[in-house]
Write a structure and sequence with these properties.
By secondary structure, the chain is mainly beta. The chain has three helices and 17 strands.
């Protein structure tokens, strides 16, 4: 008789044990899971570590876009982190269907003079998979995360890079992979207060409203 189940990081799991494996993956990323359990979950990741963008063959790729140029001192702007998910894969949405699932998040390493005002994640869609008894809220195809930021009146004028980290867990119909992160950089120009600026990438920023 064919066993009904799925593979998590190369380990065959039954539907009844899916909660245990997702919970263990969360422990792995927070450092609470130690060997040998961590090694069983992922032979490619050390305990407490995630897959990195530098690792070849990252499943989800991302790019960062800035909404205006230049950004005047005292002005607001947005950064869009656009995650492209290959066909036949998905990743958990930011608002997950259950607490044991690992959500998609974006974090920014903000320099002096730049403050985060808000962040907006797409809603995702519910989809049923063979390894879950209930539909899961996931992203497929493309997910655009918008971060609203403000430049202070004293922000230094000139070129500026803002590092960002996309954290996600990718799955296909039968396998969920260890949580990973993808590093991107948003590059912008800061100008004196009152400087005129123009909209960049309207195909991204105007269609996400």
């Amino acid at each position: 008789m064919k066993r009904r189940g799925f593979r998590f990081a190369g380990i065959f799991c039954t539907p009844l044990s899916v909660t245990t494996y997702f919970f263990a993956a969360r422990l792995l990323t927070t450092g609470f899971l130690t060997p040998p359990g961590a090694l069983i979950l992922s032979a490619a990741s050390s305990p407490g570590q995630e897959s990195s963008a530098a690792r070849p063959g990252a499943i989800v790729k991302a790019q960062a876009y800035v909404s205006r140029e230049p950004v005047p001192q005292g002005g607001t702007f947005e950064i869009a982190v656009v995650a492209d998910i290959p066909a036949a894969y998905h990743m958990n949405a930011h608002k997950t269907s259950d607490e044991y699932l690992i959500p998609t998040t974006v974090s920014a390493n903000l320099p002096k003079g730049i403050a985060q005002v808000d962040i907006s994640y797409p809603p995702g869609k519910l989809k049923k998979f063979g390894f879950s008894e209930t539909p899961l809220n996931v992203y497929e195809g493309r997910a655009v995360i918008l971060i609203k930021l403000a430049a202070s009146a004293q922000a230094p004028v000139g070129s500026l890079d803002i590092p960002l980290t996309l954290r996600y867990q990718a799955c296909n119909e039968t396998t969920c992979f260890p949580p990973a992160h993808f590093l991107v950089t948003a590059s912008l120009k800061l100008a004196p207060a009152g400087t005129a600026s123009h909209l960049l990438h309207p195909e991204i920023f105007t269609t996400q409203r």
